[in-house]
Amino acid sequence: MQTLTIYELPPTLNALNNMHHMTRAKTKEHWSSMIERACIQYGIKPVKRVSITLELYFPDKRRRDLDNYSGLGFKFLMDGLVDNGILPDDSINEVVELRIIPGGISKPPHMLIHIQEV
What we know:
This protein is α+β, with helices and mostly antiparallel strands. The chain has helices at 13-17, 21-42, 72-83; strands at residues 2-6, 50-58, 95-105, 110-117. It has a single domain (2-117), classed as CATH 3.30.1330.70.
């Protein structure tokens, strides 16, 4: 298993739905760039078929809906892995499982992206 640490949480569906399309495009570029830097930093190797788990660490005990982090926020992460050559594609032929799990409370908030080749 390979793991990336990103010291930022993905944008929620609520935040993305309220963004202007140009801001959303810049947000996607930002995430692709962060994924690229993390892949280099952690020496992430290209994989073919994977199970991906996103482990979220929040800054406080506020109630959050995990499904609010799916959708475009997760899509930005997956596109970043494809754009940077870690995954050949993000279709169901290559990505057989996607999970989002709570990791706990942490300052600074961050997420772990676990990439398990299957």
